[in-house]
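Work Package 3 committed the consortium to producing structural models of liganded targets before the mid-term review. Because experimental data for this complex are still outstanding, the team generated a predictive model from sequence and the ligand definition alone, so that downstream docking and mutagenesis planning could proceed in parallel. The input record is reproduced below exactly as it was submitted to the modelling pipeline, together with the SMILES string for zinc ion.
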Amino acid sequence: MNSLDKKAEEILDENIVIDAHFDLLMDLSAQRKLGFCKVMEKDHLENFKKGKLNCVVSSIFIENYMIPELSLRESLNQISALYQEIRESPSYFMMCKTFEDVQKAKEENKIGIFLSFEGVEPLYNDLNLLEIFYELGVRFVGITWSRRNYAADGSRFSEPDPEKNSNGLSDFGFELVKKAQKMGMIIDVSHLNDKGFWDVMKITTQPIIASHSDCRSIVNIERNLTDEQIKALASTGGVIGINALNKFASRMPENADVYDLVNNIDHIVNLVGIDFVGLGFDFCGHLRKFEPLIVTQNKVSRSFEILENHSNIPVLVEALLEKGYSDKDIKKILGENFLRVYKQVLKNDSFL
Ligand SMILES: [Zn+2]
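The resulting structure, written out as tokens with the ligand in place, is given here.
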């Protein structure tokens, strides 16, 4: 082990490491339907431990073919799968609902798991259901995935096009943001389109996060944030989690590597400072096993996540050290910035 490796390990051991976006629930739900159990322990724990991850925000995601009829049912299935998984492996995992829970997870050497919406399809048009999901543990509200729902339009995976998917928040969307913030939930604008983003900014009373987005000045797709959006988000005290997908992070996606993640971090730091960037890797390798081979084979260019999975987080820390980031800066990027938002927005007790 060279001195840089050693230093990276030390920093990771000493500090709280948070991944602000991981599609864990789809994997759990799909595998449990096939009769598997302890999926987190068997398939994910080793990578989490190698990467010294302490906390992961796990998204509830509904696939297109289930919308709208099965959205609510599938979301409940996914949450149920997580509850069962935690019950099966209580010495390794715990639910997180507050800032204090994250600290507890670190102290007890467990992986803390938060729940988030990646699109509010499970609510459809019923805001009352938000209270039920809160009680079930959901604390993050990603308003959309990259498609239209009752609250707003999602962003495109290509350049912005005002002719397409260009509506802002609906009346329901505005009410959703207000109610969620009042309840102590965190609003997440990753996947929201530009108009929706600026509508959220008009009414927010709390820090806003983009859990897994990169910089549009580096890769010009609507899914990434413009410099103006980064500044606006930082002005709320919010945080951007850097996304590891090669096509979001790099202009030369085939050759993307850890330095592209560092570039995105650098860009945000140069624009607004060190307090507004974190990690939201969006590792999806574990989901590709569900993709039909025909789809994978016919893809024009390869999608992959830089670092591949959580076990390689130390590689990013080494790259940040190489680039001259201090221990204190790296601590903020790894988790302290997101923790600041959790402390400010998430409530200790039930909102009732
Ligand atoms: Zn996403």
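Reviewers should note the following from the model. The chain has a mean pLDDT of 95. These observations will guide the Year 2 experiments.
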